[in-house]
Amino acid sequence: MVAAGDAGKAGVAEKLGIEPGIVVQEIGWDEDVDDDVRAAIEERSGSDLLDEDADEVVDVILLWWREDDGDLADTLLDVRSPLADTGVIWVLTPKTGRDGHVEPSEISEAVSTAGMAQTSNISVGDDWTATRLVSPKSANTRR
To answer: Which domain covers residue 36, as residue numbers?
Structure first.
């Protein structure tokens, strides 16, 4: 049951493309993450988020990323190995003016270096923005 004030948070899981039964791995959790977003994703998918150490194939990776977290391109290369062929990575970064904000140009450069494609950006809560990444082969698959 979603309270009226939580309806917006529940919709964020849908905006992220979370469907019942998909497997979601969370990377970069820290105390500053939006727990309402996490809860909405778990509720919509019907299961707990997998942690960084999980070794199963996943449909979605949530990557919480802040300015001081290191090299985003290297991290993208490291984390995408368990991703299903049609899977997506959502890079969640603090919004402009928030601690840890990452410039969009830095994200674009890292995405290009990692050989991925950036497809969209959405707001997820008051403090976070999400950038959707896919493997170029899944973005350009033609059958």
So the answer is: 21-135
